[in-house]
Amino acid sequence: MDTVMGRRKKVGIMGGTFNPVHMGHLLLAENAYSMFSLDEILFIPSGCSYMKDPRGILDGPTRLHMTALSISDNPHFSLSSMEIDRGGYTYTCQTLEQLEQENPDCDYYFIMGADSLFQMENWKDPDVIFQKAVILAAVREGRDLGELEAKSKQLAERFQARIHQVPIGNIDISSSDIRQRVREGRSIRYLVHDRLREYIEENQLYRVSACPGKQENRHE
């Protein structure tokens, strides 16, 4: 990553367990890319989230490969293994600090579900996150925006947070539902990229029931 035509590069960050990555992730990333004139969307599968039960989560290299399959046909999507490589618990603040150190000429836009705004003050070093990235909050159609706007204002006043909304229509796809469908032998066509669907089927992934858990990140 470096400057683009003499200006700072604008990089969107899509983090999450990606267990598995699905079309909702991809559509959100594409919406953010277009709406905010970003130069790139960087997908970063999480390592070991300190807020998520690790049982039922596929290993890092497998989730990394599944994400690579899903984004390979989009020229402005890219992939990083930094959180998986780092080892130990995954913290968004550390990821942003590492990105800034490695690419100081980039501006970062952290893409997340709008509901996670109400949890961010409990994340590790939220002030660092707000300092180092603009927040792009995905908002589903029909959501009451009053409470969301009030929370955004509170975070802006407390942390000088820069928060913008990304409309994503009425798309309701979740990784947990996809895993459940696989366990029940139901189709996941059109919920995940075709290459990923074939990979899941060929390798018989998600056939065993998993224990649900909560996570820091917002895309599950």
UniProtKB/TrEMBL annotation:
Question: Which pathway is this protein assigned to?
Answer: Cofactor biosynthesis; NAD(+) biosynthesis; deamido-NAD(+) from nicotinate D-ribonucleotide: step 1/1
Coiled-coil ranges per UniProt: none
Cytidyltransferase-like domain boundaries: 13-181
- List the catalytic activities from the record: nicotinate beta-D-ribonucleotide + ATP + H(+) = deamido-NAD(+) + diphosphate
GO molecular-function terms, A-Z: ATP binding; nicotinate-nucleotide adenylyltransferase activity
Q: Which GO terms describe its biological process?
A: NAD+ biosynthetic process
The alphabetical list of record keywords is: ATP-binding, NAD, Nucleotide-binding, Nucleotidyltransferase, Pyridine nucleotide biosynthesis, Transferase
> What EC number(s) is this enzyme filed under?
2.7.7.18
Is Transferase one of the keywords? yes
What the protein does?
Catalyzes the reversible adenylation of nicotinate mononucleotide (NaMN) to nicotinic acid adenine dinucleotide (NaAD).
**Family statement drawn from the similarity comment of this UniProt entry:** Belongs to the NadD family.
Official protein name in the record: Probable nicotinate-nucleotide adenylyltransferase
Supply the gene name: nadD
